[in-house]
Automatic annotation (TrEMBL):
<dbReference type="InterPro" id="IPR027417">
    <property type="entry name" value="P-loop_NTPase"/>
</dbReference>
<protein>
    <recommendedName>
        <fullName>Nucleotide kinase</fullName>
    </recommendedName>
</protein>
Length: 366
């Protein structure tokens, strides 16, 4: 029987630049292979190959996806084996805690022809510079979109009943946790459920919430208290000793989009665009923050201002996504330069050596 594959992001292209949450997913691991090497050296292929083989062998795995390339992976974690394999190149540089004892560097750069690459030095430098510029432009657009989003939020914050929001949060704290507590320290995993990618906004909400008995779809407007409620519920989970998965917003990582407590079988998440979902199975329910906490008629009273804000916000987000797509196209060109210089027989040998180490240690542990 195949293992379960859980998909999420640990890095994101956000309004605050590249946000890196990788360290959280690597906590508690005994072995971490950190892959080094340029673009096109086979890091993602190696990660996917070993992860898929372990999943086929019955192990549950986490696939950590790449926000800058929809077809690439940044890592795989196998909780049962306390094993991780991650791309350790920029922008998600992994700092080893116990080099050699836990983390092991794997240099895929040994597979390339350095002399051949030296002949393309100017092309590589130019492409790297242009790629950096596209990401700087994308992040600037996201930052401007966040400033516009703050205008959007202010309209609702000014019409917010904060007491009603607190009462609603307290009500759901009681519903979700009752008087339950566990006599242990919580494990907290910080992740992203989705990301801004070269193909637009992508999320893994259906995969992440699969098999949970209860899903709470939090509806509302910007500034209606969704993230604040999630932060308070995450704090309540940790205070009671439950392990909690905290999913940050892929646009503004200071905000939260989802909290999952698997020991209690529930997920509660911001179910508005770009990750808008609706109840479709038993155990699904809606929490409407607008109806509970915002002054009636706010949408209608501010319709003209809201329309202009939405248009400016959408335009700036679209511009940012275009820059991400340009960066991906440039990165594809850079990868082709490296691919032409790679001896993939060496990459395959490195992959086989890692697989052999994993299987040897797994057998020894059994």
């Amino acid at each position: 029987m195949s293992g379960t594959i859980t998909n999420f992001y640990a890095g994101g292209n956000t309004a605050r630049g590249f946000a890196n949450l990788f360290e959280s997913s690597l906590q508690g691991l005994d072995r971490v292979y950190i892959l080094k090497g340029g673009p096109g050296t086979g890091k993602s292929t190696l990660i996917r190959s070993i992860g898929s083989e372990l999943a086929a062998g019955g192990y549950d795995i986490w696939f950590i996806h790449c926000a800058s390339d929809n077809n690439s992976l940044d890592g795989v974690v196998v909780p049962e084996l306390k094993l991780g394999i991650v791309d350790g190149t920029a922008p998600h540089v992994i700092e080893p805690r116990l080099p050699g004892a836990v983390e092991q560097y794997v240099n895929l750069g040994t597979a390339w022809d350095a002399r051949q690459l030296s002949g393309r030095r100017e092309d590589i430098a130019e492409l790297n510079g242009r790629i950096a510029q596209t990401y700087e432009s994308a992040y600037a657009c996201f930052a401007e979109a966040l400033r516009i989003h703050d205008e959007w939020e202010k309209i609702y914050v000014d019409n917010m009943d904060f007491q009603a929001a607190d009462e609603l949060t307290n009500e759901y704290t009681d519903i979700l946790f009752r008087d339950l507590k566990l006599d242990k320290e919580s494990r907290i995993d910080h992740r992203f459920l989705g990301a801004a990618t070269p193909k637009g906004a992508v999320d893994f909400v259906p995969n992440l919430t699969e098999g949970l008995a209860k899903r709470y779809f939090v509806k509302g407007r910007p500034g209606s208290g969704k993230s604040t409620m999630l932060k308070k519920l995450a704090a309540a989970a940790t205070q009671r000793g439950f392990d909690v998965e905290i999913y940050h917003c892929g646009f503004d990582p200071n905000s939260l989009d989802m909290v999952i407590v698997r020991e209690l079988g529930f997920a509660i998440f911001d179910s508005t665009a770009p990750h808008e979902y609706f109840p479709e199975r038993a155990g699904d329910s809606v929490i409407d923050m607008y109806a509970h906490c915002i002054k009636p008629g706010t949408d209608e009273e501010h319709a003209e201002a809201l329309s202009g804000i939405k248009q400016r916000y959408s335009a700036k987000m679209s511009e940012a996504m275009q820059f991400l797509a340009q960066g991906k196209a440039l990165r594809d060109k850079l990868e082709q330069i490296y691919i032409q210089s790679i001896d993939f027989r060496i990459v395959d040998r490195i992959r086989d050596e890692i697989w052999q180490e994993i299987t040897d240690k797994t057998v020894a542990a059994d």
